[in-house]
Design brief:
The protein is an alpha/beta fold. It has one domain: TIM Barrel, CATH 3.20.20. The structure holds S-adenosylmethionine (SAM) and iron/sulfur cluster. The site of S-adenosylmethionine has 20 residues, from strand 3 and strand 5.
Length: 326
């Protein structure tokens, strides 16, 4: 069967699947008032997820990322990981997490087939971490990250959203952290979403100056692998760890897009900041034909735009990234 491709010659071997919108953190840029349930949510069931993954795998899915909300709050997470890892065609099962249950469960997830984990850590300073996330769990999460690094996963990466005035002076501490840890810390430029416009104005910081300071300090840009994500990665001979920059406002950010998203209730989203999503859920029921799902995926790809409209302040239908699986 033909692999998914769009009008701009891009292929889509990568799916980010949100397992639920709920989260126990209150990150100031994402869910500052915490997750607010709207009625009784009906997240995709394990069976629906299984059918979804078989459909996507039939049209070229090789890498799956489980995200949310906070994916580790799903009580059936280990079973979902195992089902994903057993799906023919899927080579990598990754997850993005706030790390709250990392210490307790990383070995179980690894044994079920998890290959890689990205942990969000906006500050190494426990008090700042508390102020940004609403939870005083920084030290616990750092311990979980060290456990993950020792657990034999293919990759453990860290995500820190770059926030002007809140965490933009921690480079010396991060460098020490990375000296002997084989991980990549990715600084993500704050993105504007429907709900965070004022916050964005106050705290958005372009990463250009940070990148220049890395170059000045002897870090060098690592050549991009063909299937690399959007991060520009820097390495330094004195440090085991690397530093990545994810700059969604940079000129060519969308040119290498290779990913699709499915929300926790089964809507296909062609772009993080798209204007619409169509429900795949009716195509995931036990009597549904997988051929129908794959033909909808092919025809939807024809509608994918060349890039997002963030530069014009168009954040699409995304109120916050927890609603789509950032
Ligand atoms: N709860 C998990 C976590 O925090 O890792 C997974 C979902 S979270 C929405 C995924 C990633 O999006 C996190 O690394 C988070 O820091 C990032 N994120 C959320 N809102 C963002 C925003 N407005 N701009 C940039 N990154 C954002
Ligand atoms: Fe929760 Fe992740 Fe959003 Fe923080 S960034 S509130 S951990 S979904």
């Amino acid at each position: 069967m033909a692999v998914l491709a769009d009008r701009y010659g891009r292929n889509f071997p990568y799916l980010r699947l949100s397992l639920l919108e709920a989260c126990n953190f209150r990150c100031t840029y994402c869910l500052p008032d915490g997750y607010q349930a709207n009625g009784k949510p009906r997240w995709l069931t394990r069976d629906e997820i299984g059918r979804l993954l078989h459909g996507f795998a039939a049209v070229g899915l090789r890498k799956l990322r489980l995200t949310g909300g906070e994916p580790s709050l799903r009580t059936d997470l280990t079973d979902i990981i195992a089902a994903a890892a057993a799906t023919p065609g899927i080579e990598t099962v990754a997850m993005t997490t706030n790390g709250i249950l990392l210490r307790r469960h990383i070995e179980r997830w690894r044994d079920a087939g998890l290959n890689a984990v990205n942990v969000s850590l906006d500050s190494l300073d426990p008090q700042r971490f508390h102020a940004i996330t609403g939870h005083d769990r920084g030290l616990d999460i750092l311990a979980g990250i060290d456990l993950a690094l020792a657990s034999g996963l293919r990759a453990v990466k860290l995500n820190a959203v770059l926030l002007r005035g809140l965490n933009d002076n921690e480079m010396p501490a991060w460098r020490e952290y990375l000296r002997d840890r084989r991980t990549t810390l990715r600084f993500i430029e704050l993105m504007q979403t429907g709900d965070n416009r004022d916050y964005f104005q106050r705290h958005h910081l372009r990463s250009d100056a940070l990148e220049q300071s890395l170059l000045d300090d002897g870090w060098s840009l690592v050549p991009r692998a063909v299937d690399a994500g959007p991060a520009r990665e820097y390495a330094h001979p004195d440090y085991l760890g690397r530093i990545g920059i994810i700059a969604p406002y940079s000129r060519d950010f969308c040119a290498g897009c290779n990913r699709l998203r499915v929300t926790a209730t089964g809507d296909l989203r062609l772009c993080l900041f798209g204007d619409f999503g169509i429900s795949l859920r009716p195509l995931l029921q036990s009597d549904a034909d997988i051929g129908e799902l794959t033909s909808v995926l092919h025809s939807q790809l024809g509608l994918k735009k060349a890039g997002h409209g963030l530069h014009e302040g168009n954040t699409g239908i995304t109120p916050h990234l927890a609603s789509i699986g950032g």
